[in-house]
Amino acid sequence: MSGQHEGTGVTTRGAEPTAQLNARVIGISIAAALGGFLFGFDTAVINGAVDALKEGFALGPGLTGFAVSSALIGCALGAWFAGPLANRRGRVPVMVVAAVLFLVSAIGSGLAFGIVDLIAWRMIGGLGVGAASVIAPAYIAEVSPAYVRGRLGSLQQLAIVLGIFAALLSDALFANLAGGSAAPFWFGLEAWRWMFMAEALPALIYGIFAFGLPESPRFLVARGRDDEAARVLHEFTGVDRVNLMIEEIRQSLVSERRESLADLKGTMFGLKPIVWTGILLSVFQQAVGINVIFYYSTTLWRSVGFGESDALTVTVITSVTNIVVTLVAIALVDKVGRRPMLLAGSAGMALSLAVMAVAFSTAVPVVAADGTFTVSLAAPWSTVALVAANAFVVFFGATWGPLTWVLLGEMFPNRIRAGALAVAAAVQWVANFAISTTFPALADLGLTFAYGLYAAMAVLSGLFVLRFVPETKGRTLEQMSDVVELPPRQRRVRGEV
User: Fold this and answer.
1) Is the dihedral of CA 471, 32, 172, 295 positive or negative?
2) Diameter over CA atoms, the chain
3) What is the per-residue pLDDT for 276?
4) Can you give the pLDDT at residue 485?
5) Is the pLDDT of residue 286 over 60?
6) Which of 65, 95, 374, 495 has the fewest CB atoms within 10 Å, measured from its CB?
7) Domains of the chain, start order
8) CA–CA separation, 491 vs 497, rounded Å?
9) 471 DSSP assignment
10) Phi-psi category of 446—alpha, beta or left, where left has phi over 0 and alpha has psi -120 to 50?
């Protein structure tokens, strides 16, 4: 779950023609995107540890769901406070703080005494995730030349899926080496503890890199440090006419000071219609159940007959698939358009989730020797479920995954973009928390019910796009401002949706 916060960027019409892409801006963008890598790693690393935590701490479905999704509470708080903190202290210090939070969380989670302190450590890591989800794309947008800002901004999304892959791969590695996630490994500590502590290494690297990053020129101009801003713009962003660029940044800052959350108020249940569109985009992105796949997939595949090693391997393959289709989405979005891709994604997700629901309707209850209850899928339904789950990841990863954040960065009018993005991002974390927490309880009711519900959400997401989401392809931000301020009904009359 990442995106480019264009409201925090700068307008570069005057300076853009003289901007030259250089290796330095690519390097600092990659370094900043390491926050996205840790974002993905931290949220997915719980996958391989779920079963061991359930057994080791004797967790019921409700507490299991809360333990998995507890980090998301910290995510919402971290995202909400990261922006104001970055405006006061700078972008780079917030990245350093996020790296420290990741490091502390990794070690604390790995050495947890019980479920209560594990949840506390996970929430601390969530603060880092939330901060990284806001600061990394904002920083990349502010240091990038305008004509490559989209491509450099996409590094954040790519870093997130790579972080998910790395977490799942390391989970599988530790479990295989130890003979199971609950088995003792190095220094007598269980393998699941090393899964969490593995995050300490990328967190340390992120912190070291963050110390070496130049501060955002936008922050420097806001603090009257024009000489430092000029150096960053010239040496990293590649701008030759730095005085003109600094003046444009200063003008944008004057405009932003007049913006407040009160500007989001409107006639549709207290908010502007386009703000509700952004909120519901965030809700539907999570309501289809994508994070169930990444948080619980190892448990899921074990429940249908895979051994722990094979289940972790399948989960890693799913993660690789997610990386590939994210690259496909980046290649297609400016050619095909946002609405057609979202509609295709909704249809594909609905179909694949429906197939999973049908497959699990054939599951046979199994009671193990220790009294634990699982289900088993006989051939060919086990294969059908596996294919359908990966098809779901393909349709989501190529459409709703990256495009939700693309739209949130584009479709809001200039004067409310930052505030509307903050609201939509906070709602997305809350929706993520709700879906992740409730899955174990839904699974107890039956996986057919759970995946059937997510399939229904996918159908509704398509109807929502068809009726309310404007097409933003090929439009300037100024052109879109005139369109999205209209109520959805008037946009449909004008053919804007």
Assistant:
1) negative
2) 75
3) 87
4) 54
5) yes
6) 495
7) 1-258 (1.20.1250.20), 262-497 (1.20.1250.20)
8) 6
9) P
10) left
Which ranges of 5-70 does DSSP label H, i.e. alpha helix? 23-44, 50-56, 61-69
From the list 236, 219, 227, the residue with the least C-alpha distance to 19 is 236
CA dist list (Å): 487 to 274, 393, 462: 8, 33, 19
The answer to whether 215 and 206 have CB atoms below 8 angstroms apart is: no
Rounded distance between C-alpha atoms, residue 46 and residue 41, angstroms? 9
Question: Residue 223 — left, alpha, or beta (φ > 0 → left; ψ -120 to 50 → alpha)?
Answer: alpha
Structure-block tokens of residue 495: 């053919």
The whole-chain average pLDDT of the chain stands at: 76
pLDDT: which is higher, 224 or 374: 224
Q: Is the pLDDT of residue 145 over 50?
A: yes
Strand extents, DSSP E, 201-274: 265-268, 271
Q: How far apart are CA 3 and CA 433, in angstroms?
A: 19
For residue range 165-224, what is the model confidence (pLDDT) as tens digits?
888 888 888 888 888 777 888 888 888 899 999 999 999 999 998 888 888 787 788 777
For 224, the 3-state DSSP assignment is: coil
**Angle at Cα 211 formed by Cα 154 and Cα 20, nearest 5°?**
45
Residue 69: C-alpha distances to residues 79, 253, 269, 312 (Å): 16, 37, 29, 20
Section 98-111 average pLDDT: 92
Separation in Å, CA 171 to CA 1, 159, 178, 408, 432? 20, 18, 11, 33, 22
pTM value is 0.70
pLDDT tens across 23-79, in order?
777 777 778 888 888 888 887 788 777 778 877 787 777 777 777 777 878 887 887
Spatial separation of the C-alpha atoms in residues 447 and 66, rounded to whole Å: 19
Q: Which backbone phi and psi does 20 adopt, to 5 degrees?
A: -120, 130
Nearest to 417 by CA among 216, 221, 261, 254: 261
The DSSP symbol for 374 reads E
